[in-house]
Design a protein that fits this description.
The structure holds three protein chains of three kinds. Chain A is 32% helix and 24% strand. Chain A is an alpha/beta fold. In chain A, helix 7 (158-170) packs parallel to helix 8. Chain B is mainly alpha-helical. The chains are: A alpha/beta, B mainly alpha, C mainly alpha.
Chain lengths: 321, 308, 195
């Protein structure tokens, strides 16, 4: 196995607000290999999006990366200067956002927004860049790309806009793509199409993908590796078969049980009691303690990630059998 | 029946938060900005100077017995023939500039505030009527407002003075006419938003008389944006009155506002006797700036979108 | 920010007086009134901006008129840019690795241009009104000064004529602003067919 494309070690991103310190990302570590899809799963407020932004260097004050290393192809991106990081963004690592309506600038044409992504990183003539943009659009399955290039974002449907965003992400052939809930805002049928496109494209280009989502069904079909996040920490990690087929952390178990499809018809829907804790003052110990039906007295001690079987790790004192 | 989830976490109310009145919150938020504090202190000084003018002026500049033409056009800091110092110099009639400024502040402020209050009352009534009655009344009022607001204030004021002639009452009338439309429009937008809210529905269901609904329920909720607009408008009214007086079309010479003082000094500017225009101008500036600073902070404090 | 409040609070005529004081009396660089020597354009209309002296006479009144609008526009642009920078498309632009210069100069600017152009167009009306004051201060023989002189001597026909011209100008300016608006914001175009 070659060197992994991304190696994250003990990443910590904190927000220093007037109300206190919010530990949005608290000791997150994972590895993504070339051509692999990693599913980063969690509820809203679990820190998964913040992890994605940290990887891109898009954390703004009052937030700051306070610790850890992010090694992209061996380079620690936290230590890069502003200009060096800018050169990485959209070039070696790209991001796709959740709401395609607002991520494209409504007053600029599609070709403007695509060509600028190319020329920001490479010396290419306008004509060549235009051709590259048209090729990228047809690769993501948009018909008659030449016409589409002169259009404005509001003339596209939601699914098409997201395809455009994917095309933009792929323009400079990045090594890593971070997709932050790209299908959440779309209809289910469109969602399926987008997932299929992404799978095909990543296989063709060999790019690694981090797919951030709260939807387990998406992860089930798409991801090779899965990391489950809760309250800013990773609580379970492993291959998709391991984590989804045989979850060892009570939270993962709870998430899987909550999916309505998993339950027998007419049976009462299961839910995890309580609410996600405020990241403002987390009590010491396991953050899931308050809602866990297996909690015991020693869960007041903060658990660390422990490997269980080959490739599966869990942050729990009493992992499930 | 299964038990309710027993681990619903409820955030405790911050102590004291439940007992603070809206006015208290506004006051508290207001003083967080040092520039705003500076503004309100400045404003208080100006208002005090205006109110106490007869008591703090070294000389009553409009009592002809006290003036001495031999003292005219003296530089700031010169000594008077009767002892005492003319701190800011004298004008062409021998009036002490400092005293003239205090008296002028009085007039400028009173005209500004009077016209604003009148315009506020008229605009409030018209705006509320338009919002509450709707239909053709609303269309008529709002079209008049639109037409009036698309013209700059000075133009309307000038034409009105040209038609009405000069005099204090007519100047105030012109200022009121120029301003009421602004209040009418603001109140109407606020009232339209409030009209859709549930408490209005409830008041109607209780069959309360319309006047009660409008004055006790609708009005208090429309006030916050009005207060901000009114504050800014006082400054604008003062500036407008000063401009009119400067052009010779404002208040009569018997009511010398700051604008008139500035106009007096205009002719002496080129011969280097700057103080006759300069100091009244500074006083005018300080007044307007302090009002604008206060209004700016009020607007930020009262803006619900900026509340976290 | 507080500086722009200052710019917006200064009464125009007083600024004019101060400009005269500083630049004409104290420094003696620029003339304080009138418009200098004129040349007949097309043999009919005397215009002064073909000579350097004419431009020198133009400087102070023009600056005086511009000052109010400059302060207003600074506040408006700042508020608009502030809001625009919080939008998602800025985040996406940064994720694409664009330079700050491009993000502000193209993405943000295009979006705030719309309200700014609207206000600039509408401010034309205020410009004409303030010109009345400025022309009086600088004794510039323009329409504004004509109006004041006419009001003083109760020359009614001139007042009425002035009003008619001004109103027509306003209507034309508002129309131009409306048309410009639809040219700037692609979402507002009425005749585009859906792609």
């Amino acid at each position: 196995m070659s060197e992994p494309v991304l190696r994250v070690e003990e990443l910590r991103t904190h927000f220093f607000t007037k109300a206190g310190v919010v530990k949005a990302v608290d000791d997150v570590s994972f590895i993504v290999n070339r051509g692999e899809v990693m599913g980063l799963v969690g509820e809203s407020g679990s820190g998964k999006s913040m992890t994605g932004y940290s990887l891109m260097g898009l954390i703004d004050p009052p937030g700051r990366i306070v610790g850890g290393r992010i090694l992209l192809d061996g380079i620690d991106v936290i230590k890069l200067s502003g200009e060096e990081m800018r050169q990485m963004r959209g070039n070696r690592v790209a991001m796709i956002f959740q709401d395609p309506m607002m991520t494209l600038n409504p007053v600029l044409r599609i070709d403007t927004q695509m060509i600028e992504a190319i020329v920001a990183h490479r010396k290419v003539s306008a004509g060549d860049a235009h051709a590259m943009a048209a090729a990228a659009l047809s690769k993501v399955g948009i018909p008659s790309p030449e016409e589409r290039l002169s259009a404005y974002p509001h003339q596209f449907s939601g699914g098409m806009r997201q395809r455009v965003a994917i095309a933009i992400a792929l323009l400079n052939e990045p090594d890593l793509i971070i997709a932050d809930e790209p299908t959440t805002a779309l209809d289910v049928t469109i969602q399926g199409q987008i997932l299929y496109e992404m799978q095909k494209l990543t296989r063709e280009t060999g790019a690694a993908v981090i797919w951030i989502t709260h939807d387990l069904s998406v992860v089930a079909g798409l991801a090779d590796q899965v990391s489950v996040m809760y309250a800013g920490r990773i609580v379970e990690q492993g291959t998709a078969e391991q984590v989804l087929g045989r979850p060892r952390h009570p939270y993962t178990r709870g998430l899987l049980d909550s999916v309505p499809a998993n339950n027998a018809r007419g049976a009462r829907l299961k839910q995890i009691p309580g609410m996600t804790p405020s990241l403002l003052d987390l009590p010491p110990g396991c953050p899931f303690r308050e809602r866990c039906s297996y909690a015991q007295s020693d869960c007041a001690r903060t658990p660390l990630m422990r490997p269980l079987t080959a490739g599966q790790s869990v942050r729990c004192h009493h992992p499930l059998a | 029946m299964s038990a309710l989830p027993d681990t619903v976490i409820v955030e405790p109310l911050a102590t004291g938060a439940a007992t603070e009145t809206p006015l208290g919150r506004i006051a508290r938020d207001f003083v967080t900005n040092p520039i705003a504090i500076f503004g309100i202190v400045l404003l208080l000084l100006v208002v005090l100077a205006a109110i106490l003018a007869p008591f703090i002026s070294p000389q009553n500049p409009y009592d002809l017995a006290q003036l001495d033409v031999m003292d005219s056009r003296l530089e700031p800091g010169s000594k008077a023939l009767t002892g005492g110092t003319y701190w800011l110099g004298t004008d062409d009639q021998g009036r002490d500039m400092l005293s003239a400024i205090f008296y002028g502040l009085r007039i400028s402020l009173s005209v500004g505030v009077a016209s604003t209050v009148l315009a506020l009352l008229i605009g409030l009534t018209m705006g509320l009527a338009a919002a509450y009655l709707g239909g053709r009344v609303e269309t008529l009022i709002m079209r008049i407002v639109d037409i009036q607001l698309s013209f700059p204030a000075i133009l309307i004021a000038l034409i009105l003075i040209a038609v009405l002639g000069q005099g204090t009452g007519k100047v105030i009338a012109a200022l009121v006419t120029v301003q009421w439309a602004y209040y009418a429009r603001t109140v109407r937008s606020a009232a339209l938003v409030e009209k859709r809210k549930e408490y209005m529905e409830a008041a109607r269901c209780l069959a309360l008389p319309p006047s009660r609904i409008v004055f006790k329920h609708l009005l208090p909720n429309c006030l916050p944006p009005m207060i901000v607009v009114a504050t800014v408008q006082v400054a604008a009214a003062i500036a407008l009155e000063a401009t009119l007086s400067f052009l010779g079309l404002g208040l009569p010479i018997t009511e010398p506002s700051l604008g008139l003082l500035i106009a007096n000094g205009y002719q002496y500017l080129l011969s280097g006797k700057y103080w006759i225009s300069f100091f009244p101008g500074v006083a005018l500036l300080v007044t307007i700036v302090s009002i604008n600073l206060v209004a700016d902070q009020l607007r930020d404090v009262m803006n619900p979108r900026l509340q976290k | 920010m507080a500086g722009s409040i200052l710019g917006f609070s200064l009464p125009t005529f007083w600024v004019g007086l101060m400009l005269i004081m500083v630049f004409s009396v104290v420094l003696g660089w620029l003339p304080s009134n009138g418009r200098g020597p004129t040349v007949d354009l097309f043999g009919l209309i005397p215009v002064s901006f073909f000579s350097v002296d004419g431009w020198r006479h133009l400087m102070l009144p023009a600056t005086n008129l511009a000052l109010f609008n400059v302060a207003l526009l600074i506040r408006l642009t700042r508020a608009g840019a502030h809001e625009a920078l919080l939008q998602d498309y800025v985040k996406f632009a940064r994720a694409k690795g664009l330079t700050n210069r491009r993000i502000i100069g193209v993405h943000v600017l295009r979006n705030i241009l719309i309200p700014i152009v609207t206000v600039v167009g509408l401010q034309f009306g205020a410009l004409i009104a303030f010109a009345i004051v400025t022309e009086s201060v600088f004794a510039w023989p323009g329409m504004g000064k004509l109006l004041i002189d006419s009001i003083n001597v109760l020359d009614r026909p001139v007042i009425v004529a002035y009003l008619l011209i001004i109103v027509t100008m306003f209507i034309v300016i508002n129309l131009v602003v409306d048309v410009l608006y639809s040219a700037l914001d692609p979402r507002v175009r009425l005749t585009e067919s859906k792609g």
